Amino acid sequence: MLDQPHRRLNPLTGEWVLVCAHRTDRPWLGAEEDVVQVQKPEFDPDCYLCPGVERANGQRNPEYTGIYTFTNDFPALIPHTVSESENTQDLRRWETTRGTSKVLCYSSRHDLSLGELSNNDLLAVVKAWIDESRALFEDYDYVQIFENRGSQMGASNPHPHGQIWAGDFIPTEIMKEQRTQKEYWELRHQNMLMEYLKLELHSEERVLFQNQNWAVLVPFWATWPFETIVLPKVEVSTLMDLSSEQQKELVEALKKLISMYDLIFNTPFPYSMGWHQAPRSIWETKYWTLHAHFYPPLLRSAAIRKFMVGYELMAEAQRDITPEVAAATMRKIMINKGAV
């Protein structure tokens, strides 16, 4: 009985999620976000990501049109560090890291979002993800492409942009997914996410939409209220593996997804999204599947979000609505409100 409290296993991380659907019936006297619908201008002279504006480090952006990529003025990772580590066997092990952090402006327009770009402009973003991955993988073991949309997810600037971090190490979440996918392959000689996608496409219960090359669905193990995963229908391990047709249909899938999100509570939907592509060291294997995660925090309305605190922080991830209810809600919105 999945409407009763139960746990679900996330096969990508090997971690469990506690599902307590009845908790949405509880009264809410907690925090509510201030929802202010601001009409953004096409150009903001005070925005350090707009064309021609001087950034905090004194450099001035070019009068760019379309996309613009530059190294973050305050990078988390830097390319030149002294190689040093404390490789003792005690509890204070550490190591230096080398990398880079880049900013990718999706558009010169300050008032657009990723989902509001034209098909051609969004395709240019996809191609930029591919080009940046190809260049950075020359020097680094892993390339993480991600976007934090909205102040609720920590975005420091409303201009449409994402980030690209690359490093000489494999991050923790990627190591989890590498381990689980490899173990599944060794046990069954099947690609785990491709097998999972077959199950979801057969049941259709959590599938939001699909085209010839992509499927967007609410994962069975979803943690965030309206979490989704974007999966290719054939085995590809990195963005660089995508054909021209796959790139074009990815544009269609992303526009549908983000447009649908914005209709749930009639507000620009905050989220963190990121692409998980294979680390350079396992490109020749067959067990990794490229995929994107969307983690939006809103729960009951544009003003009420899900907080990962208390039990979630100290014990185990927990969600308040079932993935099936979330998927049904999103499909209904797409039908009734006409998401593109």
How would you sum up this structure, described in words?
The chain is α+β, with helices and mostly antiparallel strands. It has a single domain (11-22, 30-82, 95-337), classed as 2-Layer Sandwich (HIT family, subunit A). The chain contains six helices and 16 strands. The chain has helices at residues 119-136, 172-188, 192-203, 244-264, 311-314, 323-337; strands spanning 6-10, 15-19, 68-71, 85-86, 94-95, 99-105, 142-149, 161-167, 207-210, 214-217, 228-232, 271-276, 291-295, 298-301, 304-305, 317-319. Strands 3-6-8-7-12-13-11-10-9 form a nine-stranded antiparallel sheet, with helices on both faces. Strands 1-2-16 form a three-stranded mixed sheet. It has a two-stranded antiparallel ribbon with strand order 4-5. Strand 14 (298-301) and strand 15 form a beta hairpin. Helix 1 (119-136) packs across helix 4 and helix 4 packs across helix 6. It is globular, with a radius of gyration of 20 Å.
Rg for CA atoms? 20 Å
CATH architecture: 2-Layer Sandwich
Largest β sheet strand count, sense and barrel closure: 9 strands, antiparallel
State the name of the first-level CATH class: Alpha Beta
Mean pLDDT: 91
Looking at the structure, the CATH topology is HIT family, subunit A
Specify the helix fraction band.
25-40%
Q: Please state roughly what percent of the residues sit in beta strands, choosing from under 5%, 5-15%, 15-25%, 25-35%, 35-45% or over 45%.
A: 15-25%
Give the helix tally: 6
